[in-house]
Design a protein that fits this description.
Structural class: alpha+beta
CATH class of the largest domain: Alpha Beta
Shape: globular
Radius of gyration: 24 Å
Distance between the termini: 44 Å
Number of helices: 9
Largest sheet: 7 strands, mixed
Order of helices and strands: EHHEEHEEEHHEHEEHHEEEEHEEE
Number of domains: 2
Low-confidence stretches: 229-236, 240-337
CATH architecture of the largest domain: 2-Layer Sandwich
Helix content: 25-40%
Length: 337
């Protein structure tokens, strides 16, 4: 008998999982947050009723509030309806909700992820009740920078929902024709979350386009995904004093990163100071550099690769403008890894 037979386990049943997260939840005070927490499940239920498939909410599995979001399991047979009509209905519900809450200074805009696959149901009451890679991936996608950027680049009084659909949903529901949606209605992108050691693929969808994503399209709003400002601020090195005298044009700043190749003028390391005659010399990072030096450093780089880490000068962050960024673009072939 094969000695590994006792390690074989039955494959758990596939379940759809929908995760939503509210943008800038912590910007609201305690009273406002309580109202948002209550409004989230109400909106999810109302959207199910509005799209004509109340079972999406009525037969939900492992419903879980995350405070600033919500998680529900959905029977796979209902996923075509979620993809086809539920997201559009949720956008409509959120728009009406925000019209009611705007006077109280409350804004409810959501990021949503949808995935499907094997999910283990746990009997241990100390745990959430559901576990598996399918669950983890759904939580990673709802937190991806692509969704954050879509909200940032759209009108906050028009677009209230942006979604990332996982590859298994596209394969099972869209490509098979069950959802009556074309794959071209979604923008494929690569998702990388370095802090979580996650790499995956998502298909972006926005029920109601506005702002820059209406004018330029999901794949054309920018050349690279903008890093989350709060996360960059927490990860960036502390600002160091620096000072320059005279003409700073063409200086390449290397604060927390590195500059390779040829640069116009001079390059900064940890040695000497810039003055009017410092062409081709090195500059001390311990002295104040003005903003123009950074702008020229990022725009006038010639023939080299600029490190992707953000430069911090005078307490401000400047990212290279001539690189594609770690997340790639929204293009149909996905982002760059």
């Amino acid at each position: 008998m094969d000695a590994t037979m006792d390690k074989v386990q039955y494959l758990p049943g596939s379940v759809g999982i929908l995760v939503v997260d509210v943008e800038r939840f912590s910007a609201h005070n305690d009273v406002q947050q309580r109202r948002i927490e209550t409004a989230i499940p109400d909106a999810l239920k109302e959207a199910a009723d509005l799209c004509g498939i109340p079972e999406i909410w009525g037969k939900r599995r492992f419903p879980t509030s995350t405070g600033d979001g919500y998680v529900i399991g959905i029977d796979e047979v209902l996923l075509p309806h979620v993809v086809h009509g539920y997201l559009t209905s949720l956008q409509a519900v959120l728009r009406e909700l925000n019209e009611k809450l705007r006077g109280d200074g409350i804004v409810v805009r959501m990021r949503l992820s949808l995935n499907t696959g094997p999910i283990t149901m746990l009997d241990d009451l100390r745990l959430t009740g559901h576990q598996g890679t399918t669950v983890v991936d759904a939580h990673r996608l709802v937190d991806c920078q692509q969704l954050r950027t879509l909200l940032k680049k759209s009108d906050p009084t028009v677009t209230y929902l942006v979604a990332a659909i996982a590859e298994p949903v596209i394969t099972k529901v869209v490509r098979t024709g069950y959802a009556a949606r074309a794959e071209s209605e979604y923008v494929k992108t690569s998702v990388e979350i370095v802090a979580k050691d996650y790499n995956g693929v998502a298909y972006l969808h926005v029920p109601t386009l506005s702002g820059e994503i209406l004018a330029n399209g999901l794949s054309g709003i920018q050349e690279s995904i903008e890093p989350d400002e709060e996360k960059v601020a927490s990860e960036a090195p502390a600002p160091v004093p620096a000072q320059s005298t005279g003409d700073t044009e063409g200086v390449a700043v290397n604060a927390g990163g590195s500059v390779s190749g040829s640069t116009i003028g001079r390059e900064i390391d940890n040695s000497q100071r810039v003055d009017n005659s410092s062409h081709g010399q090195t500059v001390d990072n311990s002295q104040w550099m003005d903003r123009s030096a950074v702008n020229h450093a990022t725009n006038n780089h010639v023939g080299g690769d600029v490190n992707q880490s953000a430069d911090v000068v005078n307490g401000e962050k400047y990212a290279p403008t001539n690189s594609r960024g770690r997340f790639g673009r929204f293009g149909s072939k996905g982002g760059e890894r």
